[in-house]
Each structure stands twice: as structure tokens, then as C-alpha cells.
Amino acid sequence: MSKDPRQLFPRGSGQRYGLMELVKGTSPMVGKGPEDTVMSWPHLLIMEVLAILGTTVLLLFWSLAINAPLREFANPDVTENPAKAAWYFMQLQEILLHMHPALAGVIIPVVMVIVLMALPYIDRSREDIGIWFASKKGRKIALFSTVYTTIWLIGLILFDEYIRVRSLIQEPEIWPGWLIPLAVIFGLSALLYFLLRRWRPTTREMLIGFFTAFVVTYILLTIVGLFFRGLGMHLTLPWNLPPGALTF
Amino acid sequence: MPSNRSITRIITQNRVWQSIFRQGYPDTDENQSKAITNSWFLHIHPVRVKTHTLKISYTWGLGVISFYLLVVLLVTGIWLMFYYAPSVERAYTDIQNLETSVTFGMLMRNMHRWAAHLMVLTVFLHMCRVFWTGGHKHPREFNWVVGVMLWLLTLLLSYTGYLLPWDQLAYWAVTVGTNMIGTTPLIGEQSRLILVGALETGPEALVRFYALHIFALFLPMIILVGVHFWRIRKDGGLSSPLASTDEPPEGGVK
Questions:
Q1: Can you give the CATH number for the domain in which B230 is found?
Q2: Which residues in chain B touch residue A47, judged by CB atoms under 8 angstroms apart?
């Protein structure tokens, strides 16, 4: 870059572009020629229009077929049984059954959000951007993490319903409310970490394992809380749910 | 090609049309790029996109679908506001009237509700897609953070809307939720009081949830959506695999 930029970009030559700024680093388009690109009109726009039309059709038919729920007038004196939050918060209400409310309803969600936001700052590699699950190994790790998390969660939910941590240890509250749940969370995370290590994963692949565990936990607990919790928030089967247990 | 007397020509070859669409029909590269850059609605797009961006199996269109659902929610939401007053006396009967006496009232309410639920789903799936394909990584770290905020806003907007019909479903779902907030160490009860506005879920809560729903949460939502889209462009479009492996992964400057 010994040349004067003004020579490269002379003024008043009838050109329709100008030098705006000199920056260090490669642009994200480095190594990508025009042959890797197409005109947005029509290629991108047609895809967007199709996505929009498809969504519209789905939403219209759904809205014609199924009416939004409207129950009786709100009555503070008549508690719904089960009293459930909106369906997308059922994973929080589910963990609420197993630990202290402050831990389940506030501390865990806040920590999860902070960890989620921190993810790209933990893993700074760039080689595997744009590849689903980073690699073949990453795919195996995601699958393993899914199976691992599913088995443990179902086991733990059944344990706390039919054997109950609180029937084993009641006092002081710090044990069933805080220490045991935290020990289970950290213990199972540590176990997952050591099990994943046998693949010798990169940071990225390890994070895929843990993110997948988070997603599986989130979805599975939502499903259990919504479809498998009946009167008094006790486990039941979806076809035995009391009326009003589905909070859509 | 349309002949001189064709109807297309009559529509497009006049000053009014040409004052709106400055370029000709986008069938040449030049007009196709102008169609994007000359349009306020379209100029958020780049003129050219990577072919990788268009792969359905890469994005599943989840970002576009989420944004479109937000637009549907805005339109149906404004429409619902014409018929709804956030007071304990009126809210419930307003919804009943909407369902029984307002033309297309039921359809509009259904669309608003189901679009909201669908958006909660698509935004979450979009987040999963971005992580699993590595789209959150450098240089897109901050846009990922914005995306997580958008996910939270989506949940909160849906949740605040949930109370508005003032039926048993709404009342108890919100009571369960605000009680959870009340358990926060140190600031729990204060936070709950700010949100509910009284000791119990009641008229004060309804007004506050309404204000949050239609404005206090929606405004940050549209601003952050703007930032999110703008950052996609600034960070080099949608993520895609690096072109060649011999490229230095970080920066590229020696």
C-alpha cells in the first residue's frame, strides 16, 4: 500500500464511486467472487415472498379452524387447578416444582440469558462458521447430548414425582430448595463435560454439546409442564388432563 | 417485450409511475440493482446475495418468517385496539363483542393470538439455527446479543398480551408469572409491585400490561429489529462457510 490512495481513486474522472474509508482486516466477501453471488432481485425476494405467502396461508387456515381461547371472567377467588403460566413459560414452572422459587424463576433464567449472550465471546474460532453442527464430530456430540439430557431429565422428573427429594430430606429448606438442585445441575453438567471429552472436541464442539443440552432441556420441560401436568401440577398423561390445563 | 400500445406501457410510461419507481422493469442487472437501492422498503437488502444465503436447508427462512409475524401482529394488534379498552369493566365484554358482533373480529383475534404463539416458536428456532450453524460467531457477536434480547422481548410481549382478555386463563397465568418475579432475592417484591401496580393482580395490572404491550415493549422491539437487520448488512450478510481454508481465520492482516 505504498501508493497514494488519491492516485488510485482520482477525482473528477466521471466515476460514480468514492473512497469512503480505509479499514484493516478482510471484508466478509474476501475469497468470494461474483460467481458465488446472485442478484437479490429476483432470487432473494422471491424466496422471501414465498416464505411470507406460506406463513399467511398457514396462519389463515389455523385461525379459521381453531378459535383463540376465552374462559370465564377473571375471578381472584376461584383458583384454576392447575394454575399454569402461558405455555412458553411452562419450562420455568416445571423447574419451580423441583427447587426454591428464586432459583427456578429468577436466578437460573437470568444466568442462562447471560451465558447465552456470552457464547460468541467464549468461542472465537471462525473455521466452522456456516456449517451445521460444525463437523461430523459436532453432529455426533449434539446427538449424544440430546439422548443424555432426555434420559436424565425424564429420570429426574419421575424421581421427584414418585420418590420426592422432599420426602427424603425436608429440613433445612436449603437442602431440597437450593443445594440438591444445584448439585444435580452442576454434577450432570460436569458429567456431560467429561463424557464429551472422549471425542477430543474443540471449544466450538463442546459448546454445541452444552447448547444442545440447553435446547433439549428447554423444549422437554415445556412439553412435560404443558402436556403432562394435571391437577395440583402432578404428573398425568395428556389424555387425562383436566380441562383448562393447556394454556395456549 | 410489451409493444408500444400495451397496457403495461400505459401504466408504467407516465410521470406518476416513474416518480415512484425510478428504474424500468427489473429485467436487467442495472434495473434489478436499482430496484433494491431505490426502494425504501427493499434497500435493507444487498444488491447481490451469496448463493449460500438462499439455501432453505441453511436458514429455513426463520428470520423472515419471524419478522413477517411481527408485522401481522402489528396490523392485527392495531385493529384489535379499535375495539378494546383495558379496563376490568370492559376488557372481557369487549373480547366477547369482538367475537360475536364485529365483522371478522374472531378471525382477527385468532390471527393475533396464533401469530404470537407462532412467533415465540420461530424466534426460538431461529436462535437455535444461528447457533448450530455458527452464525453467532465473530464478527456477528453483537448481533447475536441483540437477537437474544429480541427473543426475550418476544416472550415479554406475548406474556403482557396474555392478560388483556381478562379471563380466568389470563388472570391465573399472569398471577403465577408475577408471583415468580416476586421471589427474586432482595428486589422481588418491589419488582412485582411495579409490574402489577397493587398487592394483587387487578385493574392496575391490566393498565400497566396494556401500556407495556402496545408501547413500552413494542418500541424497543422495532428499534432492536432495525438494529438487528442493519447489523446483518454491516457484518457481511448471512453467515456462510469461509471461502478457502488457507485464509487466515482472524482478520487476515499480517
A1: 1.20.810.10
A2: 54, 56, 61, 64
- 10-residue stretch averages of pLDDT, chain A, 248 residues long: 60 66 66 78 95 98 96 91 91 93 90 96 90 94 98 97 90 91 97 96 96 98 96 94 88
Question: Out of A71, A117, A211, whose CB is closest to B169?
Answer: A71
Q: What is the reported pLDDT for B98?
A: 95
- Domain span including residue B138: 57-234
Cβ-based neighbour number of residue A85 at 10 Å = 26
For residue B63, give the nearest of B186, B139, B158, B150 by alpha carbon.
B150
The three cell numbers of residue B213 are 404491550
CB A150 within 8 A of CB A220: yes
Please check whether residue B185 lies inside any domain of the structure.
yes
| pLDDT for the residue A18 | 67
Q: Which residues of A touch B229 (CB under 8 A)?
A: none
**416444582: which residue's cell?**
A97
**Which among A43, A62, A133 is the nearest to B54, CB-wise?**
A43
> How high is the pLDDT of residue A16?
64
Rounded to a whole number of angstroms, the distance from the CA of B150 to the nearest CA of chain A is 12
- Domain containing A156 equals 87-240
- Total number of domains in chain B: 1
pLDDT (tens digit per residue) in B79-115: 999 999 999 999 999 999 999 999 999 999 999 999 9
Interface check for A24 against chain B (CB to CB < 8 A): the answer is yes
Using alpha carbons, list the distances in angstroms from residue A103 to A221, B178, B180, B184.
Answer: 16, 15, 10, 8
A209 domain-assigned:
yes
ipTM of this complex: 0.89
Which of A41, A123, A142 lies closest to B36 in CB terms?
A41
A81 at the B interface (CB within 8 A)?
A: no
